[in-house]
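Continuing from the previous page...

OK, I double-checked the sequence for Sigma-54 factor interaction domain-containing protein against my notes and this is the correct one:
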Amino acid sequence: MTLSQTGPKPILGQSAELTHILRTLPMIAMSDASVMITGETGTGKELIALSLHQQSRRGTNELVTINCAALPNEDVEVDLFGRCDQEGNVTFRGRLLAAEGSTVFLDEVDALPLSVQAKVLRFLEAGECQLQGSHRLHVADVRILAASSADLAAEVKQGRFRADLFYRLQVVPVELPPLRERKEDIPLLLKHYLREFSGSNAVVRLSREAENCLVTYTWPGNVRELENFCQRLALLNAGQLLQVGDLPKEIRPEQSSAQHQFTLPANGIDLAGVELDLIEQALDMAAGNRSKAARLLGISRDTLLYRMQKYNLTP
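Thanks. Re-ran it with the corrected sequence; updated structure tokens here:
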């Protein structure tokens, strides 16, 4: 499934997890509810935010992106909300107030200073804020989307993030799976980005073995890492057919006699039966807690629910 964007980076994928997310975006976009987008770095959180904005009633206005980790060390409150003079006249409209009628995307929201989190919470709840130098409340019609690659629940427990702001942001949670959990999308992404970066040159081709190697690679930087990798290949290997030996060392499989984690019996196995058995074991060990069971299996909660439905297990 592909969701087209006006920018150069579409959201690409055919995996069940990503397809489910893309199908829910139009419904989420029609609401003004705040959305918390989580996922590892490079999974496409900003693209999801852009898609939600473009499909909303505010889509004719420009999406305002604020990287909370890049906010100035001083005057964060002024940068976000603004300032008034002694007479109460607005002398500077902060980025939140200046986004009137549009959508604000708070990227890396976990980096938002505690000193302004209460004001951001008030803005979320009522669209109100008190500008520096004024006792009068100012109101703006703005929708808030937020994203983080951190474990915000853990940040709340550590006292580094307000619990009330966390729950107010997470009215609608969207969790993006890492690329290693949607390997079936990797060939599609490779084909797209190799063609995109080829420009006027011949497109880089991959042997079946090289493509299989890239599919089994864990991609710690997710789609962003894959995109940068394809750009490098297109620049240095235009028109070539690449073999496994042509790939970077960190991506190639170990050439030593590495031991497999599981040994396939000579008479084969029932793969579906093994998967079902492991899911049932994980659910038993987690006492039915699906989030814990998903962690035991090394997959996302959405992936677990999808596979439970596949085997008609009671959710």
